[in-house]
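Person: Please comment on this record:
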Amino acid sequence: MPRSQKRPALYLAGCVLAGAALGLGLGFADAGADAASAPAPAAAAATPPGSLVFIRGGDVWVADGAGGGQRRVTTGGGYTVPSQADDGTIVAARGTLIVRMDDQGRVLNTMDPPDLGGTSYPLGPVLTNVEVSPDGQRIAYGYSEITPCDGGSCYRARTDVTAADHLTPPMQFSVPFDHASWVTSRRLVLDGGYREMVQLYDLGGAWDDTVHWFDDADHYSDWHSLNEPVVSRDGTQFAAVRGEGTATTVDWYRLTDDPRSAARPGLPAKGCHTALTAGVASPTFSPDGSRLAWEQPGGIWVNSAPAAVCEQSTETLLIADAADPYWSAAPYRPGSVTPAAVLASTHRPAIKGKARPGVRLKATAGAWSETPAAVTYQWLRNGKPIKKATGPVYRVTRKDAGRRLAVRVTATRPGYAAATVDSQPVKVARRHHR
């Protein structure tokens, strides 16, 4: 279920001429005719299972599957794109930080991932997409931006994966696609390549091992962007945001093959779509697949019928004044503690000095949203801690030659959760030049 900040749906691989796809009417086929002969699903429970996490007023909130019991999990604002693992752990972005907490708001750890995409065209540092895996072990994160190119606009994106409890080196899984959503705890569905494409990626492979699943053009002659793709937990339904600008819908489909296991699933069958409007985003299935929720003007809306029965579809406002919904299988729990405040990094630590053997490097502490009571340092060699290198100054050794050094700064303050941020790495010269 992809979590992303709202932005125009122009895509990355080629250039999209300014305004070329904006404000056009979408020529949807009548999905009801396709679905009328499909068997009706079993009746859904009165209160769907799981928990809904969402954003209201810049903070993370949680509610039960019927939208009841709404409570705030964080304070201080600045949060976006929350998601929740099956064990209740919540992950959200806060500017440049990934914040991981329990469902009561107690912060477990924070991470400041580096920019992605190489040195020529790095993307970052403000996160646009963050999602925790169902098993809570990994976090997909990413950056995206729109830049001028050839008289129009080009969309660039990059997605990577880190361990949930500590930041792992980037580029292990990095792929040039966007809106990563977990199909399983080892497989992601993403959009990109071209703006109408949907991709599947298994962790551990190179980015060019990504499987091109299907395009919007496979269903419509007047194809449009497909963004924020999601797959239901049982592997029987797919949904995405279709369209651009003020002309967007959530479309959902019936799946003929199981994308949790099939190397390249077959083409999804067209199902239903919401009414054409602006501001549609963040589709998310209930854990049992009986409902689909999404964001559009007014708050979080829900549809009570899956893709098979379009004529029975009813759109209802579930949670007013809310955004970025994510439906988790985690059981809803009432609140019991006051949400913890979080120190936020406003400027990443930096390394000063020439990175070559024999030279002393000095680390800055960076800047923080509140003045820390204490700051600690840990120097890293190729992402791994260097023994006894725990001060603001580090003398480069021969072991460092040809490798990358960074410094990890942890800030603490009474009443706040500790925050940890890594500097951008510097590469050490292989030999000392006079």
